[in-house]
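Final report, section 2: Outcomes. Of the targets proposed, 2-C-methyl-D-erythritol 2,4-cyclodiphosphate synthase is the one most frequently requested by collaborating groups, and we therefore present its record in full.
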Amino acid sequence: MAPDMVLPRTGVGIDVHAFAPEDDPQPLWLGGLFWEGERGLSGHSDGDCVAHAAADALFSACGIGDLGTHFGTDRPEYSGASGVKLLSEAARIVRAAGFEIGNVAVQFVANRPKFGPRREESQRVLSQAAGAPVSVTATTSDGLGFTGRGEGISAVATALVYPVSAHEDHATAPGPAKGAPHA
Ligand SMILES: Nc1ccn([C@@H]2O[C@H](COP(=O)(O)O)[C@@H](O)[C@H]2O)c(=O)n1
Ligand SMILES: C[C@@]1(CO)OP(=O)(O)OP(=O)(O)OC[C@H]1O
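The predicted structure is given below as tokens.
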């Protein structure tokens, strides 16, 4: 790789949460939204695996650890924390580490909730939290596995970040004059 080449960095994040037991029902928070009448997920936080996967992908892209590194379950301040709060905090940490966010893409696997009608709303809430475009898609697993049996929800995310200082150096550094001979 050329030493002065500035490359964006990609990251990946996966999160899985089980549905809360029937004797300890929880509200469902997913994709930054509250889902009235839907069975909720268990977790130390609100269990929003879409927001968690997005945050994990951001940390992964920067190479600064993962969700547990920054918001471990040993941290009482994150007990019951909303996914939106964790994602906005992750974006703040990413920027403090010298990166800007290109975009985040998340897909979750579940029979329910039916996501399509609220996709725009979810994307708006999560994009605002990240300060960058977050897209969300959904799929079922055709009845297979733990998501097919309705035991929980899984989400996978990718993120793209780029180092800000290096990017700005390139944007502002005087380049070779047009037509100048190559060294
Ligand atoms: N929880 C979900 C799951 C799926 N969708 C939408 O349905 C489409 C078809 O899903 P398949 O798993 O049968 O391929 C999928 O592409 C989503 O648009 C949804 O809205 N909510
Ligand atoms: C988010 C944290 C912290 O509250 O707890 P959970 O809600 O259990 O979520 P998980 O995806 O298991 O990630 C670990 C923790 O960082």
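The two ends are 17 Å apart (CA to CA).
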